[in-house]
Every structure is written in structure tokens, then in C-alpha cells.
Amino acid sequence: QVQLVESGGGLVQPGGSLRLSCAPSGSIFSIRDMGWYRQAPGKQRELVAAITSGGRTNYADSVKGRFTISRDNAKNTVYLQMNSLKPEDTAVYYCNAVRFGDYASYWGQGTQVTVFS
Predict the structure, then answer these.
(1) Is the pLDDT of residue 2 over 80?
(2) Which helix (H) or strand (E) holds 66?
């Protein structure tokens, strides 16, 4: 079964930057939307940023101006550039992809981002 594989998480001090990447482990055809979600301990999973196949983006208010989502349609890869990181950005970040037609949804296993002083 095809899954998404995230990379790029880690430990960083406040004000620092990280870049997350996500690509499928196999072939997924006709991906419609791709996005990043995060889940902090004791909290529900929330949308961080999303991007359509045409490049239209959407961001959570808490990350606007600091995070940038982008994608490479040829590689079915999505990126999340995170700048000016804050301790409240600490969470497990998950990649998601939705396919055209049947709206099948794919998830990654998550990558930990920890922002600490």
C-alpha cells in the first residue's frame, strides 16, 4: 500500500527554521490537494497549510507569514518551509494527499518538530 514519507523534522531553537518534505513511497496518480497537519500532545490534529494542484494555498492563521507550502507536481512531493519557529509549533507534523476522482486520502507516519529554548 502506498504511503507518504515525511522527512526534515528535528530540534530547533525559537526563531530557527526547518524544512519538511513529503513524497509517496510508490506511485500515486492524479493528486489533487496536498497538505500538512500537526498534532501536539493532548490536542486535536489541525491543518497547518494546504496547496491545490494549481498552486492555490491556504494557511492556518497561527503560521501565516512564517510558513510556506510548496509542491512539485512532477514528483508528487510537497514541502513546508518553517521560519521563525515558536515553542507552540512543537508537534508531530503529518503529510496528507488527496487524489482526484475518488478523493482517496493518503497520510504519512509523521515527523516530530520540537522548538525549545
Answers:
(1) no
(2) none
Handedness of CA 12, 68, 35, 37 (dihedral sign): positive
Nearest CA among 2, 8, 4, 1 for reference residue 108:
4
**What is each CA distance from 79 to 6, 9, 22, 43, 102, in whole angstroms?**
9, 12, 6, 24, 24
Residues 56-82, mean pLDDT to the nearest whole number: 96
Across 57-82, average pLDDT: 96
Residue pair 24/98 in contact by the 8 Å Cβ criterion? no
Strands 4-7 and 111-115: unpaired
Amino acid in the structure at residue 81: Q
Is residue 1's pLDDT more than 80? no
